[in-house]
Amino acid sequence: MNPDAASPGPLLEQYRPYLWELAHQQLGRLHSKLEPSDVVQQTLLEALPMLDRLRECTDGQRRAILQSILKHNVTDAARMFTAARRDVDRERPLRPTPEGSSANAPAWLAADGSTPSQHAQRAELAAKLVEAMVRMLADERTAVELKYLHGCTVAEIALRLGRTEDAVGGLLRRGLRRLRELMKE
């Protein structure tokens, strides 16, 4: 048996120094709060489910995929450390009762009716979605994420990306088309 087939280590480990250098460059002011090696480790862990596909890729394709995952991890880390801290004034009950409490929350949270197999199907679909989004062009992926995952308007996305609203509309159309194609594969 090929040792590389049994262990993900050799294939992914060779990219650790490359990813560390990228993380070191991208972390900027977060160096005091987060080590590049932590972001690299998270990136390699997230690449494990794609290992079979990564084995079929060229070195350049692997680097691009790993770089994209790393970039998202750095972005997530930045959001985590710069997010607004808890503000009690902004808190609202989950589902208010006439008395204004959320005492009935455990009942409606537990009653979603999902079976373990439905949870597994959703998890598989989520993994497939992540893999598909990693394969999208960066601007299209960012536009789709901002619109459909973060609820941003086209105008807000245009401001963030430094593009016109028409250009963002094109990115969204092409991005969704590409995402559908990748999800069918």
If you had to describe this structure to a student in words, what would you say it looks like?
- The chain is an all-alpha fold and 185 residues long.
- It folds into two domains: 8-84, no CATH class; 123-185, Arc Repressor Mutant, subunit A, CATH 1.10.10.10.
- 69% of the residues lie in helices and 0% in strands.
- It contains eleven helices and no strands.
- The protein has helices at 3-6, 9-13, 16-27, 36-47, 51-56, 59-82, 105-110, 116-134, 138-149, 154-161, 165-184.
- Helix 3 crosses helix 4 (36-47).
- It is globular, with a radius of gyration of 20 Å.
- The two termini are 29 Å apart.
* Rg for CA atoms: 20 Å
Q: Which percent band covers the strand fraction?
A: under 5%
How many alpha or pi helices? 11
What overall form do the CA principal axes indicate?
Answer: globular
How many structural domains in the coordinates?
A: 2
| Helical amount | 55-70%
Largest sheet: none
Low-confidence stretches: 1-7, 94-105
Q: What do the pLDDT scores average to?
A: 78
Q: What is the strand tally?
A: 0
N-to-C SSE string, H for helix and E for strand:
HHHHHHHHHHH
Class computed from helices, strands and strand pairing: mainly alpha
Q: What is the CA-CA span between the terminal residues?
A: 29 Å
What distinguishing features does this structure have?
single chain; mainly alpha; Arc Repressor Mutant, subunit A; 2 domains
Give a summary of the structure in a few sentences:
The protein is mainly α. Helix content is 69%, strand content 0%. It has two domains: 8-84, no CATH class; 123-185, Winged helix-like DNA-binding domain superfamily/Winged helix DNA-binding domain (Arc Repressor Mutant, subunit A, Orthogonal Bundle), CATH 1.10.10.
